[in-house]
Amino acid sequence: MFLNKPWLIAPLVVNLIKMNETNVNIELGLNKKVRRAYGIDEIALVPGKRTLDYDLTDPSWLIGEFKREVPIVASAMDSVVDVNTAVELTKLGALGVINMEGIQTRYKKPDEILNQIASVGKNDFVPLMQKIYSEPIKEELILQRINEVKERGGIAAFSGTPQAAIKFQKILNNSKIDLFFLQGTVVSTEHIGMEGKESLNIKDLCQSMKIPIIAGNCVTYEVAKLLMHAGVAGLMVGIGPGAACTSRGVLGIGIPQATAIVDCSLARDEYFKESGRYIPIIGDGGIVTGGDICKCLACGADAVMIGSPIAKSTNAPGKGYHWGMATPSPLLPRGTRIEVGSTGSLQRIIKGPALLDDGTHNLFGAIRTSMSTLGAKTIKEMQEVEIVIAPSLLTEGKVYQKAQQLGMGK
Question: Which end of the chain is more exposed for a tag (fewer CB within 10 A), N or C?
Fold first, then answer.
């Protein structure tokens, strides 16, 4: 009856959607119902009734016992963070995480290896990576890298898979490490292992480690809640959206980042009401510009983890290239090497002044300017900002930028 009144159709659909308080069920087939999930590129932030002076904004956050001025964590990737960048990021008010199972802990002189990765051809890249990462991890190098960061005034944050956490737990407990990021493509509290093989119990790990454990990655409310009850000090959210990650193509796994962050942040808020413990959510993957960061914060994240934007710095160990953590897998590589180039110093990328107009420089300034425009003094207030679905946000009115590959059209 509405076919001759098209202006009624959209409001009707919106109201029907609102009627279901928990989920919007869409019929995929006769016996399978699904819900719609949204990516960061599909949403926009809505200005409210007030604005703020830039200097009144405070996007600081707390992870473990460390208060950080900048809500940015550099990914634990060999192309992104080494000792030098970890120290500099600490000084800039952010945080950098070193891959405990990467080149830094396999080779005494990692620069020689990084040069090989930067110079190899596309067809030979994966075999070279598999060969490079077959070199054993050395306990003495784990300790050496931790000490190097601490001696230079940095926060010693290191990342490892569940298998590495089991293997190196004792050495980490006897080191000067500050934070440990327990990281896998997917992390759960219930892993069924082969008989006779040691499986990781995250609750036991959190209790036995002397340092805060930040776990990930997860994308659902249920798993987020279970990990919080297990004792994690932070949670990384995101599966597959990273610039160099191919997990979604190889495994078919993932939830678009905006929906994943909203769902996991609800778990955080409910857990805080139950326990009094606040567990920060770190949006991880698919985040390139200052606008992306702001949208993640508005969805409920307390900070973001970024790789490719930091890999573009002249300080980055990847020398203009970036590759995923699962790239060197001997059986099923789930990452690739992408050329990101070098666009400026770490200082310029994090705190400016910006030389580029595409949102990839002065990320901290972008966060504070957005907060100022939206009237949000703190991250907590930023998480309350109104959000709309806006698939045309990045293309509307940008014909000339797209045609000339300028600004948002690059």
Answer: N
1 in any annotated domain: no
Is 47 part of any domain? no
Q: What percent of the chain has pLDDT over 70?
A: 81
Together in a domain, 383 and 251: yes
Q: How many folded domains does the chain comprise?
A: 2
Active site residue 299: no
Exactly one of 245, 264, 294, 299 is catalytic; name it.
Answer: 245
pLDDT value of residue 24: 62
CATH code at position 361 = 3.20.20.70
Tens-place pLDDT, residues 304-355 = 999 999 999 999 999 999 987 665 666 655 567 889 999 999 999 999 999 9
Q: Packing angle between helix 363-374 and helix 290-299, nearest 10 degrees?
A: 50
User: Do 25 and 70 fall into the same domain?
Assistant: no
- Give the mean model confidence (pLDDT) for residues 153-161: 96
Catalytic hit among 68, 106, 145, 337: 337
Residues 257, 42: Cα–Cα separation, whole Å: 10
Task: Note if 106 is an active site residue.
Answer: no
Give the pLDDT confidence score for residue 13 in this predicted structure. Answer: 44
Asked if 72 and 95 count as a contact pair (C-beta separation under 8 A), the reply is yes
Give the residue-averaged pLDDT of 45-52: 95
Once rounded to an integer, what is the mean pLDDT over residues 244-270?
83
Cβ neighbours of residue 258 closer than 8 Å, sequence gap 6 or more: 37, 38, 39, 40, 42, 43, 295, 296, 299, 387
DSSP state of 335: B
Q: How many CB atoms lie within 10 A of CB 256?
A: 20
* Domain annotation covers residue 49: no
CA distances from 196 to 192, 193, 208, 358 (A): 12, 8, 22, 53
Closest CA to 147 of 98, 206, 102: 98
Asked if residue 16 has pLDDT above 70, the reply is no
What is the extent of the structural domain holding 190? Answer: 54-409
pLDDT of residue 249: 65
Q: Which pair of tokens denotes residue 197?
A: 């093989």
Domain membership flag for residue 41: no
